[in-house]
From TrEMBL, chains A, B, C:
Keywords: Lipid metabolism. This is Enoyl-CoA hydratase. It holds the Pfam family ECH_1. GO terms for molecular function: delta(3)-delta(2)-enoyl-CoA isomerase activity. The lineage of its organism: Bacteria, Bacillati, Actinomycetota, Actinomycetes, Micromonosporales. The gene is paaG_1.
Length: 218, 218, 218
């Protein structure tokens, strides 16, 4: 389950050491972590990371298979969480130690910046391959953070981008050695921590107003 | 006139061996080709190419000069065809063996990917030079597929991009030797053929919803 | 105060030799210069430059501090001027000899192209650092001219981009030696002068229709 720690101005949200799929309990825990980050005073920033070879593989398809009647509420919760990250009044950096797939890849894009392990692991939107189209909100999120060419290729082909490829495509901002992923993300976050506050929240909310409206179903 | 062939999973639409301007009969033939592609079962992809030194020079200005009263219907037909390519539930690759101008350049952009001859021929939007502004739908199409800087330069200056320049600008995805244009496009299309289907169509329709609405005059 | 000169087809608007902040009188003078450019016949283009180490530092915060009650009208005037540059039916090139900050950086983005001094001076949006969020119109302007990654970094971190960095980020189109800034901008402008006219104005107005509506408060 997700855990939250703080080191000086930097909160570190660890998504877990499994595939870190979006089980309802997992979503609750992440949401409570964001509550804590939002309530803290002073300079602050957030690094979201994970332990092992997955950042996150996205939706919990096993749970959904057993709880199909709860799909609408579940989808709304996921989209609201993505919106919350995207507009967070706190600088955010995703540290990607491994596979970052589907809604996990979208969660990474909802951060201000991304640091990915260079030598192993993929960032991938496999939706076209598994027959699940993006919701309008998810589509808007992805398209708002990538160049048109990269969004098109990622969304229509399911291409798997390794770290160096993801860097060249502008999907991530840094691709570094495995043992430097968290440190690089933390260093960036610490530098940006003084920017936390309502101005930052307003800037992000206005930049992504149409995306946020689509994610929130408005 | 346009012809359609099939090689395994890949349909090949040849736009002709002239300037391949959008005469009403030509538009009808292309539309019927898309009907055939859409009706086929199983994995499939589409390569659109041409014979000779033109991919297409766009609108048939000679025909329009003689049929000015039919402009509104003609423009709607052209825009609907661009919309149909853009949202096609089939992977599409444009093979550009030569000049790709004006609405011909837009038709290329409505494909998923583009392969251009490296050493000769230009991709160009000459509208500003000939005094014909882009319709809102055409403008939206171009802007949805290019970075802001490239869209601005292409649309406001009429710059002619050779293959290598078009590759650097992200207008095309590959620039290759003349005799490799069709083969490269076909190889990419064959790889993507398993993605054909309703999921792909929905993904594209949602990605480009505002563009499609503008092209369809809605 | 701003001055306007003409050299053959190229008008040169010099924003001044101070920080060139947007005082109401300065805004009036720039607006009158645009009137003159618009009224001229034949091929024409506009280079906007400045003398010394500032292109412009943006809003006149001293004046605003003493005239807080006039903020709404002042903000509308600034936004209308940005919209006017963005949609001008004349090719425009900004020559950046030095610091280009905040609304000055937005003014530069409202030109068709930008030439920046390579070795000194910064292009910067410090709004997040000084606690002033972008208006929706300003946000839309910046986002319409930069890639998503660059817009996000520039707007959420206040990063200062030197000439070479601004070139790599696509914020400017050329970074050259100090004594080549004006000459490069003038050369580009002269080349584009034949494109001046209503077609160009319509092309830009349609490309940036949502941005213009947001800047004009509609």
């Amino acid at each position: 389950m997700p855990t939250l720690d703080r080191h000086d101005d930097v909160f570190v949200l660890n998504l877990g050491d499994t595939e870190n799929r979006f089980h309802p309990d997992w979503l609750d825990a992440v949401g409570r972590a964001l509550d804590q980050v939002e309530q803290a005073d002073g300079p602050k920033a957030l690094v979201t990371t994970a332990t092992g070879k997955f950042f996150s593989n996205g939706l919990d398809l096993d749970w959904l298979g057993a709880n199909g009647d709860r799909l609408p509420g579940y989808a709304a919760t996921v989209q609201n969480l993505l919106a919350r990250f995207l507009a967070l009044a706190v600088p955010t950096v995703a540290a990607l130690p491994g596979h970052t797939f589907a809604a996990g890849a979208m969660l990474a894009l909802a951060h201000d910046f991304r640091v990915m392990r260079a030598d192993r692991g993929f960032w991938c939107l496999p939706e076209v391959n598994i027959g699940i189209p993006f919701t309008p909100g998810m589509s808007a999120l992805i398209q708002s953070r990538l160049t048109p060419q990269v969004a098109h290729e990622a969304m229509t082909t399911g291409r798997r981008y390794g770290g160096a490829e993801a860097l060249r495509a502008g999907i991530v901002d840094h691709a570094v050695a495995e043992d430097a992923v968290d440190a690089t993300a933390t260093r960036i976050a610490a530098t940006l921590a003084p920017n936390a506050g309502q101005t930052l929240g307003t800037i992000k909310s206005r930049m992504y107003a149409p995306v946020l409206a689509a994610l929130r179903g408005k």
